[in-house]
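[Meeting: bench + compute handoff]

Bench side (C.D.) handed over the final construct sequence. Compute side (W.E.) agreed to return the predicted structure before the next meeting so the bench team could plan truncations. Sequence as handed over:
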Amino acid sequence: MTDGILGKAATMEIPIHGNGEARQLPEDDGLEQDLQQVMVSGPNLNETSIVSGGYGGSGDGLIPTGKSISCAGREVWVGPQRCICLREAGVRELDPLGSGRHPSHSTTPAGPGDEVARGIAGEKFDIVKKWGINTYKCTKQLLSERFGRGSRTVDLELELQIELLRETKRKYESVLQLGRALTAHLYSLLQTQHALGDAFADLSQKSPELQEEFGYNAETQKLLCKNGETLLGAVNFFVSSINTLVTKTMEDTLMTVKQYEAARLEYDAYRTDLEELSLGPRDAGTRGRLESAQATFQAHRDKYEKLRGDVAIKLKFLEENKIKVMHKQLLLFHNAVSAYFAGNQKQLEQTLQQFNIKLRPPGAEKPSWLEEQ
């Protein structure tokens, strides 16, 4: 019955006057009642996926045109020249001249590769989610501390040692910069003395009346160049040792300090979160959140305690290493500078031998790392 009625409605012709206006057809009360019955007793669109047949197609699943239907909480208007396809995934508009048949759905089960991809995507999503929550809590805690509204955990003794380390590093960087400047000035002085000695030697050959005086000065400048090269080697060794102490040993300790400070901030953030939950009402949902917050807080507390111990140990070893290195380097610097300005070439050479410093001849290539071992 439904097929016949809808077929009749779909093939009705509407006469058109010359002025382009449609002329009303005689009312067919039976047809109108049947259409209303179809609309009322039609299929449940929220549970069934149907396709309109279109003109000339099969009458199965036809939806009368010019009606408003409800689909997933929304009203869809079906115009006189449009038909729709309702699926479980949504609503799609079809060509009215389509076949009107149900599309074939693939029933091929997902392969193991798809399951692995979904698992990886889920893990990445969880990582990003945890990172976002952690960043939010830490930022909130940091702002609270900056504005004086939040409390922070402080180890006074350790904080004092860390601040002392930062101050010591700044002072050693200043010494390193001055040492490099001294090296550059000494190198320029050596170049000037070497050129001056060559000039004196040349003039001693071309000025017979001043040959002896030019000769003395040439020998003096050559001796100064030799001693200056020895002093430059000692200063270079001093600067290299200070550079290693500042840029590697101290920097490594400060990297651990940064990790400790980040762990302290996380610890305080989750501690504050746990305190807020503890002060709230106790119900079934809050109890689960409280247990989860307690476990997370304990994990961050363990991390904070471990890094605090690591920082304390590294600070102790750094202080011992700094004293040992600087004792040797300061003694080297003092002996080398004193011997140079005293003109004691023998003592200057003994100083380099005492600290196992080998000078490279001018123009020699830098030794390989195997030769330096």
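W.E. noted at the follow-up: The radius of gyration is 45 Å. C.D. will use this when planning the next construct.
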